[in-house]
Design goal:
4 helices, four-stranded mixed sheet, single chain
């Protein structure tokens, strides 16, 4: 009987001690943190304990989000000029894909508006072709309909001029059907 009470007290004390230390989410991604067998926790991307309250939050360092997002400027900054060079080989990485898409962009010469922004979303198939036309997801507010149409036509014709993209089999398989969101920013100084 006393042994049962002692075990119960020890469990209660350990639970109170575990609750006394608030759970901290490590701001350093797991892949960059050294892991040791002497650590106080298991060496996994995340861990949970039945003594902890709250959700089990993974600490996994994803290189890209679930959907691929890209911003393309009409006039790139000096520091970003290298990202706007067309790859001289089949596209093997997401960086190659983004560089290829940046080199495809041709802003409209007429009916242009300084500071105009548009975003479209679409997907590629394994062969490097588009699955359906790009869907408009954002346009700068207060812009006339004919200007929006001009920019959407420029986006469509710029993408069609580059298709089909030449993916390696690995990248083609990884990208097939995944949504890609591109924000086009016309940062040219127009009318000067």
């Amino acid at each position: 009987m006393w042994r049962g009470i002692l075990v119960f007290l020890l469990l209660a004390i350990s639970t109170v001690a575990a609750d006394a230390q608030p759970r901290q989410i490590n701001p350093i991604p797991f892949s960059h943190e050294p892991c040791s067998v002497l650590d106080y926790r298991p060496c996994t991307p995340y861990y949970c304990s039945p003594l902890e309250h709250g959700p089990c939050i993974p600490e996994i360092d994803y290189p890209y989000g679930q959907n691929l997002q890209l911003t393309i400027e009409s006039v790139p900054a000096e520091a970003d000029r290298a990202k706007y060079r067309k790859p001289d080989h089949d596209l093997d990485t997401i960086g190659d894909l983004f560089a290829e898409l940046r080199t495809c962009w041709s802003p409209p010469p007429d009916n242009a508006r300084a500071g105009m922004q548009m975003a479209v979303r679409f997907s590629f198939n394994k062969a490097g072709g588009m699955i359906g036309p790009p869907q408009l997801t954002y346009a700068t507010a207060g812009v006339p309909a004919d200007t929006r149409t001009t920019y959407l036509n420029a986006i469509n014709s710029s993408l069609k001029a580059c298709l089909p993209l030449k993916f390696t089999s690995g990248l083609g398989g990884a990208l097939a059907g995944r949504p890609i969101a591109i924000r086009y920013v016309d940062n040219r100084e127009l009318g000067k």
